[in-house]
Amino acid sequence: MEMHAFGTLNYVVLLVYLTAIMLVGVYFARRQKSADDYFKAGGRIPGWAAGISVFATTLSSITFMSIPAKAYTGDWTFLIGQYVAILILPFVFMYYIPFFRKLNLTSAYEYLEKRFDVRMRLFASLSFMLFHIGRIAIITYLTALALIPFVDISPLTIVFLIGVLCIVYTFMGGIEGVIWTDVIQGIMLSVAAVLIFVMICFNVDGGMTEIFRMSAEADKYFPAEKFAWSWSDSTIPVLVIGFFFASLQQFTASQDVVQRYIVTDSLEETKKALITNAKLVAVIPVFFFAVGAALYAFYTQHAELLPANFNTGGILPFFVISQMPAGVAGLIIAAIFAASQSSISSSLNSISACFTSDIYHRLGKEHSPQKTLFVARAVTVSAGVFGVIASTYLIMSNESELWDAFNSLIGLMGGPMTGLFMLGVFVKRANANSALVGVIASVAAVLWVRSATDLNFFFYGVIGTLVVVAVGYITAPLFKGKSEDDIKEFTLQHQK
Question: 263: closest CA among 350, 172, 190, 169?
């Protein structure tokens, strides 16, 4: 495939973006006086900024590129998942956020110790940290891999720009720096999606009307066969169920999102964060799918512009580099960097929060705020370095299967983690030992389903969550738990 020169102007635009992100980290570094500042921003974050941060955190560079590719080659059915994520937010606000804010948690998994015991806290926290170290490596690697064919930047340089700069500004600015860079990056992602779509419209004969007509003619929106039930294919009913539990995991059991609930100064500001996120999720992903439809129309009309045997997974960066004006292309590539960095920086800070709260403080003696801040920053650097080293190894060896399998296996812990929170909040009779039995049964069930059946992967989270709740409920009478007074403020009954 032809390598397209990135060009001086595009380099300048990318450099300006990277410099601006670094300056944000430098600016907020002076506010990091304690671990509370580093992980909670002292409650100084407005709700709208926290909401944009949640949106940017959950949208990685792989999503930024894969959604248009999916719409280009397939259809729009995965758009359903975005709206399921919106519908779940009132449920999260009513039943989960009051616990997180009232308990003033640094790590979401502190709740699991208060409700059950330290074993459940450590299981969830370690699962989260391992998964996100793997996630950092995978996102960095796949971003570099996607850009290599289209820009004359070496893959190791891409890994350095994404990984090392994330480490630096997360190290300096803490969660406050992360959130305000997320705001910049979230705006960049949104503007880039709209800009790409508009520019393709001007290059398609017949414009926007023709784009949507061609997609309708090719039945690329919501094909009738996708409404059928299936155990193995990602049809619409499966997507609705799968995305419901995936969103539940993300918004109730994942530290990188839950941490955004405690950086504002009031419950009302947290509500604004969820509303802001919902507005962005309702609008921006539509443009990503529309970009895929526009690319389909453009390359159908201009098939000669597409190289033979082209890997359509890179259709978006290929169009950006080959068709967009210099400067604008640099801005879009910067947006891809932004999508990657917003996810990675959030992972770094949340890994640090989990280790500091769940391991360093919980299993050690009391430490001064200054020593805790030092450890928090050291963990940020360590996690980032592990991610960069792993990404570099993948680039050098050109082998991703092992890490993909690792990422998939650790990701299967999301269901059990979600089930633990659900069990704690909604099942008053559940206790620490019944929760442990539920987790063991859940992990075993998901691993068996994964290895012995062809069940669609969207069901893994469903099974993982429901088995914890069911087994935790059924086995509760077999074990002695905490007294009702000890758990009453950690269950739903107390909230009523």
Answer: 350
Q: What is the DSSP letter of 231?
A: S
Q: What letter does residue 104 receive in the DSSP assignment?
A: T
Rounded to whole angstroms, the Cα distance separating 257 from 102 reads 17
Closest by alpha carbon to 44, among 196, 173, 164, 156?
A: 173
d(CA 430, CA 474): 9
Q: State the DSSP string of 47-63.
A: HHHHHHHHHHHH--HHH
Q: Largest Cα–Cα distance in the chain?
A: 72
Amino acid symbol at 287: F
* Rounded Cα gap, residues 87 and 417, in angstroms: 21
Torsion on CA atoms 204, 209, 214, 215, rounded to nearest 10: 110
Listing DSSP states for 318-361 in one string gives HHHHHHSPTTHHHHHHHHHHHHHHHHHHHHHHHHHHHIIIIIII
Element housing 493 (H / E): helix 492-495
From first to last of its 496 residues, the chain has per-residue pLDDT tens of: 444 556 788 788 888 888 888 888 888 888 888 888 888 888 889 999 999 999 988 877 777 778 898 899 989 998 998 899 899 988 888 888 887 888 878 899 999 999 999 999 999 999 899 888 888 888 888 788 777 776 777 888 888 888 888 898 888 888 888 899 889 888 888 888 899 999 999 999 999 999 999 999 999 999 999 999 999 888 999 999 988 998 898 899 999 888 888 888 888 898 899 999 999 999 999 999 999 999 999 999 998 888 887 777 778 888 888 888 888 888 888 888 888 888 888 999 999 999 999 999 887 777 777 888 899 999 999 999 999 998 888 788 765 554 455 545 555 678 899 999 999 999 999 999 999 999 999 999 998 998 899 988 888 889 999 999 999 999 999 998 877 777 878 887 655 4
- What is the spatial distance between Cα 291 and Cα 336, in angstroms, rounded to a whole number? 15
Q: Name residue, tokens 């998964």.
A: 131
Domains annotated for the chain, with CATH where assigned, are 8-409 (1.20.1730.10), 412-496 (no CATH)
Closest to 287 (Cα-Cα) out of 191, 143, 187: 191
Q: Quickly count: other Cβ atoms within 10 Å of residue 399's Cβ.
A: 11
> CA-to-CA distance for 333 and 152, rounded, in angstroms?
12
User: Taking a C-beta distance cutoff of 8 angstroms, is the pair 82, 242 a contact?
Assistant: no
Q: Which two tokens stand for residue 420?
A: 């633990």
CB-side neighbour CA atoms (13 Å) of 232: 3
- Contact by Cβ (8 Å): 242, 461: yes
Read off the tokens for 354: 């989990």
Amino acid (1-letter code) at residue 195: L
